[in-house]
């Protein structure tokens, strides 16, 4: 599910730098098999996200999964859930 977008390196101009695509709340909920409301609760507990304005929130899948592994009380991710 994780897609990479090749962007040019700012110094050399080579397309070696790969930037992960950002996911919205519904996509993260589907990835983790939670409801979108639970994703709101995870953000309140410190789940990493990027905010654009007052209403748009985006997530990087790898950061969310890493956070969930460290905060298993809020977000249990079984080993069979993969990207």
Spatially, the strands of the biggest sheet line up as 1-2
How many beta-strand segments? 4
Number of helical stretches of at least 4 residues? 3
Write down the overall mean pLDDT: 79
Oligomer: single chain
**What is the terminal-to-terminal distance?**
5 Å
CATH top level label of the domain at 24-77 = Mainly Alpha
Q: What percent of residues adopt helix (DSSP H or I)? A: 25-40%
Please name the CATH topology of the domain at 24-77.
Answer: Arc Repressor Mutant, subunit A
User: Shape, please?
Assistant: globular
What is the helix/strand order?
Answer: EEHHEEH
Major sheet attributes: 2 strands, antiparallel
Spans of at least 5 consecutive residues whose pLDDT stays below 50 are none
Rg calc: 14 Å
CATH architecture of the domain at 24-77: Orthogonal Bundle
The percentage of residues in β strands lies in 15-25%
Q: Structural class, from secondary structure content?
A: alpha+beta
Show the helix and strand layout:
Layout lengths: L3 E4 L9 E4 L4 H8 L3 H9 L5 E3 L3 E3 L2 H10 L13
Antiparallel strand pairs: 1-2, 3-4
Helix pairs in contact: 1-2
How would you characterize this protein structure?
The protein is α+β, with helices and mostly antiparallel strands and 83 residues long. It has a domain of 54 residues: Orthogonal Bundle (Arc Repressor Mutant, subunit A). It has 3 helices and 4 strands, in the order E-E-H-H-E-E-H. The strands form 2 sheets. Strands 1-2 form a two-stranded antiparallel sheet. It has a two-stranded antiparallel sheet with strand order 3-4. Helix 1 packs across helix 2.
């Amino acid at each position: 599910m994780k897609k990479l977008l090749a962007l040019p390196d700012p110094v050399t101009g080579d397309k070696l730098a790969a930037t992960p695509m950002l996911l919205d709340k519904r996509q993260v909920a589907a990835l983790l098999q939670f409801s979108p409301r639970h994703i709101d609760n995870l953000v309140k507990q410190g789940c990493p996200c990027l905010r654009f304005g007052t209403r748009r929130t985006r997530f990087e899948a790898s950061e969310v999964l890493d956070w969930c592994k460290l905060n298993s009380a809020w977000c249990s991710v079984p080993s069979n859930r993969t990207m």
